[in-house]
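Colleagues,

For the teaching module next term, I've prepared a clean inverse folding example: a structure given as tokens, and then the sequence designed for it. I'd like students to try predicting residues themselves before seeing the answer, so please don't circulate the second half yet.
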């Protein structure tokens, strides 16, 4: 007799299967790691150097937002002051050691993210729960309930799951936004993992919403998940506690620096935050946000701003509405994917490495549309936006500037298309209605 509750299958997986999975990841990751660590020292993990410099400035009693990294990069610290406080440990160990620690942490975080994002696609696993803590409806995508793996097309032998996990982890590692995590020593993947785990872990040992609050306080853009929680809490009482927990955590970590380092906190919120050029050239190819794509048209500033605000309102309404529907239908993974894409598209500046959310998008598609998921993976493995920059250099009248700009915006336009695809993706529950 069916009870309507998610079913968890207990499957014993041999230890050597996990050892083989680890070997696959290490062997495949090594060329990527060796390549970027082989860069000249002043070109290596430059964003990690920014974090470390922020922590160092605090230890030296220097103004965090006036200190820059050594030449030739000369990069300022651009994150909220609590991020500088959290970066202090990085300044206490040698630069050589911190590079290895950070890269290992990125790969481990990637593995955790892949496990929780793809567990329905890889085979039977632990049922997911919504951010409020209640299990999604039986049979809904994202439950992990007695499903057959789309990647193996049948209930897989126990050893297949660890091996497939290793293969999928490596595949995700070579996505361009994830390669850039290692190239620059970025923090984005950690934020993706925090938001994902807060939404899908079945019985978290932390107050649900706390991880989203931490992520938002560290880099602001995960604040889209506060909007997601607020929207879903409107009609789902189980979402209200996570929303207040996330908002409270964000507020506490935002106010703490005003007590500990008040001058730096004031500098950030009333000066550095308002200067988007501190982040780099906003018209650069790597800025794949809606605003970045519009800026590259080089239209008048007023017109660009009006179009940007209109596009943000339209795509934001459409994307959050779709995320709410996915949550309502028990498809938590799709809701997380849609909300993550909002973090990229709606932000004034979103570099290619901010698209680390593409892992969650691919996972949300893989459960029911594995071929499309594979196509999205291939699209974001290739450095397509940079092809657009090269096309513009051909200097062929009309063709070069027009086609070049379209290709240059490939990842941002792809993200908009994926919002539409995910919004139209029906969960098993809604499909039966």
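(Answer key — instructors only)
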């Amino acid at each position: 007799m069916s009870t309507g509750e998610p079913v968890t299958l207990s499957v014993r997986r041999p230890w050597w299967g996990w050892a083989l999975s680890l070997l696959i990841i290490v062997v495949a990751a090594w060329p990527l790691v060796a390549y970027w660590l082989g860069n000249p020292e002043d070109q290596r993990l430059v964003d990690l150097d920014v974090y470390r410099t922020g922590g160092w400035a605090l230890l030296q009693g220097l103004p965090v937002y006036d200190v820059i990294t050594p030449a030739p990069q000369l990069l300022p610290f651009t994150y909220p002051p609590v991020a500088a406080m959290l970066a202090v440990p990085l300044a206490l160990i040698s630069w050589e050691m911190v590079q290895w620690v950070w890269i290992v942490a990125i790969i481990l975080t990637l593995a955790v993210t892949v496990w929780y994002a793809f567990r329905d696609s890889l085979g039977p696993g632990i049922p997911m729960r919504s951010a409020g803590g209640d299990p999604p409806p039986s049979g809904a995508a994202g439950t992990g309930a007695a499903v057959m793996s789309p990647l193996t097309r049948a209930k897989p032998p126990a050893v297949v799951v660890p091996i497939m996990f290793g293969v999928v982890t490596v595949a995700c590692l070579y996505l361009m936004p994830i390669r850039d995590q290692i190239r620059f020593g970025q923090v984005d993947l950690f934020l993706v993992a925090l938001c994902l785990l807060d939404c899908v872990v079945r019985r978290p040992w932390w107050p649900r919403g706390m991880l989203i609050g931490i992520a938002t306080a560290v880099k602001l853009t995960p604040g889209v998940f506060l909007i997601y929680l607020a929207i879903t809490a409107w009609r789902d009482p189980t979402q209200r506690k996570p929303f207040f927990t996330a908002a409270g955590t964000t507020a506490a970590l935002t106010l703490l620096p005003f007590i500990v380092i008040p001058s730096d906190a004031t500098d950030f919120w009333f000066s550095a935050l308002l200067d988007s050029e501190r982040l780099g050239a906003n018209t650069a190819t790597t800025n794949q946000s809606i605003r970045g794509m519009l800026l590259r048209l080089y239209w008048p500033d007023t017109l660009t701003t009006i179009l940007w605000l209109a596009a943000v309102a339209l795509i934001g309404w459409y994307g959050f509405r779709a995320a709410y529907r996915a949550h309502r239908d028990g498809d938590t993974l799709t809701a997380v994917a849609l909300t993550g894409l909002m973090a990229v598209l709606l932000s004034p500046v979103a570099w290619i490495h901010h698209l680390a959310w593409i892992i969650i998008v691919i996972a949300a598609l893989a459960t029911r549309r594995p071929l499309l998921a594979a196509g999205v993976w291939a699209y974001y493995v290739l450095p397509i936006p940079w092809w657009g920059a090269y096309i513009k250099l051909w200097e062929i009248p009309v063709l070069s500037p027009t086609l070049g700009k379209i290709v240059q915006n490939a990842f941002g336009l792809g993200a908009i298309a994926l919002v539409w695809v995910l919004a139209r993706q029906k969960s098993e529950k809604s499909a039966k209605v």
